[in-house]
Amino acid sequence: MAAVLRVDLPENAYDIAIAPGSLPEIGTALTPLGLGKKILLVSNRIVNKYYGDTVRESLTAAGFEVVTHLIPVGERYKTLNSIQKIYDSALEHRFERNSTFLALGGGVIGDMTGFAAATWLRGVKFVQVPTTLLAMVDASVGGKTGVNHPRGKNLIGAFYQPKLVYIDPDVLETLPPREFRAGMAEVIKYGVIWDANLFAQLEAAAHLDTVQTIDPALLETILVRSCQAKADVVRQDEREGGLRAILNYGHTLGHAVESLTGYKVINHGEGVAIGMVAAGQLGVKLDLWDTAAAQRQDALIAKTGLPTTIPDFLAIADLVNILQNDKKVQDGNVRFILPTAIGAVTITDQVPAATLKTVIKACQSAMP
Amino acid sequence: MAAVLRVDLPENAYDIAIAPGSLPEIGTALTPLGLGKKILLVSNRIVNKYYGDTVRESLTAAGFEVVTHLIPVGERYKTLNSIQKIYDSALEHRFERNSTFLALGGGVIGDMTGFAAATWLRGVKFVQVPTTLLAMVDASVGGKTGVNHPRGKNLIGAFYQPKLVYIDPDVLETLPPREFRAGMAEVIKYGVIWDANLFAQLEAAAHLDTVQTIDPALLETILVRSCQAKADVVRQDEREGGLRAILNYGHTLGHAVESLTGYKVINHGEGVAIGMVAAGQLGVKLDLWDTAAAQRQDALIAKTGLPTTIPDFLAIADLVNILQNDKKVQDGNVRFILPTAIGAVTITDQVPAATLKTVIKACQSAMP
């Protein structure tokens, strides 16, 4: 089976192609896009070891000239310094405006390759080949690119759309289980904020916690419906003026937890999982959501093997302080995305500071 | 007198306001734009000394909170490192997504402020207040932002449109005469590539070489028609797919000359002036343009006090080599913008290497 979703943005329409076993065909898939001959394949050592040769052989067979640029593994290399090294490669190999930067990897590789593509020669072509579940369902759709500032995640970046997102679910077989679960956090998010049917399918599944035990048909459904949800939201709000903010459900507190644990103890998906639990509790406290729905959400998160509590060693004051620096702050008020039903959320900056502290504290103890 | 031009881009329409003596009114002009309260005023020491207080007082009186960030004077500070310092200021003063970066200065300040605005939090609001003629007629219209790579000018950047371009011609009184003439090179360019009527008005003028001797009414005409020409071209081709390339008339060789002289001996406008003379000669050699038109162009350049010959100490081989690395190279062929009439140009990559060398050599000697 295979699926193609069209992301119909006013100026930048592109396809998301989802097909198991399709990686060796990527060269053929790029041919109709009218790209220049040169492709800068940006990846890291691990992903390159698994899939670099397959991609390079397919691209070369289709007539492309491929230069490979490897970035060290890990979020701590998601810096302007790494971007400068991509620029240096592009200059050394005389990349031109119609050349292509292709991201082969997870969210970090995708975000950095996209930002480099957005800013080299004021924009070259960009193709995403996500190899993690998180990147497939989240990072590779929507055009957010960027790097971290020493004092905050993703503070530097641009909106830049790819020419194609090319997803082969089979590559998830080599993904560490913890990273698979991190991606599932975003999948659950789409269920809560947008797609009650997806949520119900996830609830009905026997296993969600590893790629080996999940039903392959469900995995494809997950990819299609998650990308569709994100594409629907992005199409309506490419530059995050309004609606798109709902994609940040669970991210406000999630980012804070990630950041305070140095982006290592808690990864992005785990932070989002914890953030969704907290947002759910805030929703209940503010009479937006009912307890039963919150419990369904939390049970699904737990079934996926994701954390549901804030690590005990984090200080509430530190969390609150870091929330004040969140990108989603509008003229001083912290903005939260809170659920109102399975499949629907609301945006509010009317969360009393005391309520926030109470909920954070409750989320540090065992779940209610 | 005052003029407002509307730049009608599909997603980013904005105004260019041109009015002598209007700088003290800038706060009032920004009020209807729906900007957030915070403004990061980016400038350099010299411009800030002349105009910083006027702008700050007007903005503060209109209710804005202004933070000033100064960048050292000169093109050599047009680097990612300077951008990082802007990010640091924005972070320190808790700038948010609806905050504004305001460029008060010439092209270097405008390009850097725009790039920082394009990439901080994936895009904050941006306002241009150009204080050089070059920035008024060229850099502040069209959304090109960026910085230099150690090995090439403007290789790093983004397309990002301002919310407003605010031009007070009176500030040109403090501009060094050489910089005024540099701006006039771009004005002459618009005459040659787009606006034969502007060209004729420039030909008819008694003086063009200093802001003190130029007729004030002509100066305003120059600003309006130049911005209009650029806005017309940009509106038809925001991302430089085709037509917009004509704005690079004179720039292909001009950049090479600038670059080889370390961006000091020859400034940008002087490089463009030399490049237009060379492009004119190429046009004549290739039977696209007639000698009389080329002579009219060259005479206008000379009347403005701009150089018309390539410095003798530059090696032809070096110039040709640097042209190969120009951003405007398409799959290996150097692309030239060549005139076909006063007010019209064509784009070609069919310039034989031998012709190019002959013309470069001729342009090093006295003018024909």
CATH superfamily of the largest domain in chain A: Dehydroquinate synthase-like - alpha domain
Distance between the termini of chain A: 42 Å
CATH level-1 class of the largest domain in chain A: Mainly Alpha
The H-and-E topology of chain A, N to C, reads as EEHEHEHEHEHEEEHHHHHHHEEH
Helix- and strand-based class of chain A?
alpha/beta
Shape of chain A: globular
Report on this model:
Chain A has 368 residues and is α/β, with parallel strands linked by helices. Helices cover 45% and strands 17% of the residues of chain A. The first copy, chain A, has two domains: 3-174, Rossmann fold (3-Layer(aba) Sandwich); 177-363, Dehydroquinate synthase-like - alpha domain (Dehydroquinate synthase-like, alpha domain, Up-down Bundle), CATH 1.20.1090.10. Chain A has a seven-stranded mixed sheet with strand order 1-2-9-6-5-3-4. A two-stranded antiparallel ribbon of chain A has the order 7-8. The first copy, chain A, has a two-stranded antiparallel sheet with strand order 10-11. In chain A, α9 packs across α12 and α10 (268-285) packs across α13 (353-364). Chain A is globular, with a radius of gyration of 20 Å. The model of chain A has no long low-confidence stretch (mean pLDDT 92). Chain A binds chain B through residues 10-11, 36-37, 80, 84, 87, 91, 94, 96-98, 115, 118-123, 144-146, 149, 151-152, 154-159, 239-240, 325, 327, 329-331, and chain B through 10-11, 36-37, 80, 84, 87, 91, 94, 96-98, 115, 118-123, 144-146, 149, 151-152, 154-159, 239-240, 325, 327, 329-331.
